[in-house]
Input
Amino acid sequence: MAASTMLSTDVVPPRERAPQWREWVWQHFGGLESDLYGDTEFDGHIAASRAGEVILTRLEANRHRVLRSDQMARHSDGGYLKIVAPWQGSAAVEQKGREAAVRNGAWTIYDTTGAYTVANPERTDHLIVMVPKSQLATAGLPLDRLMARRVGGAGGISRVALEAMRNTYQELPNMSEAAARGAGELIVQLVRLSLMELAGQETALTQREALKDRIRAHVAAHLRDPQLSIDSIAVALHCSKRHLHNAFADEDDTLNAYILRQRLAACMRALQDPAHARLGITDIAMASGFNNLSHFSRVFKQETGGSPSEFRRRVGLDHA
Output
């Protein structure tokens, strides 16, 4: 069974690759906006197949982000739960006020019928699996509180599910239609069991996830405050700094790095927003909680490869 969709920017002139990629992502994933961090050079590849009602896509691309707003979610044709499982690079999924960052060996799941963002801040090679939501919504699972959770793939049923998804994708060209449909049904069952296990883990793990949710909500609400810090969060949430650090122990980012990344993301959104075109870069940085401009410029360049003014110019040229 050959891949049903094969798309590559290799056959597209360099100047047309970024807009063509946005169009492909919009069409293939059912209404999804793309942002390339202001980059004008881009290459990406999409190869997708179906295993019955399950859609498996391998996506290799330069760094990029995708976004589905509330309005786009309401107009979505199909309701899927979408899994991202990196082979290389990383992905950070935000939905329902939660964020899950994953690398090779783990996966996370989110709901395409709600708003979400997925950040891929480095070159990626991801397996993306789309399971019809209707096949899991009737399983008695509390899906709302399981979205944007990190699902470990190091052991247990979630590891079995991860390997099944990867192996199915790789072997689909050699499967009959009936075999592919059966493999898709197996993936649904393994994902269901993984989510059941995640929902039933009333242990320190879920307590840590609950604390992480509270931390992220507090950071979002106070991001503009330059005094936001681990000390101030500990006071506001009535817990020790050790507990705050422990809540982020399984993440790629420390808590300090998470705050910094959220501030940078807010700055990048403002620099790309035509409504803020008249605002100076200093004003934007201060409004996002930075109080040291040299530090802001340094970390911004580390994140984007250029200065804030260069980023704004690249975005303007791209839109033009």
Summary: The first helix runs from residue 17 to 28. The chain has two domains: 5-199, 204-319. The chain is about 45% helix and 20% strand.
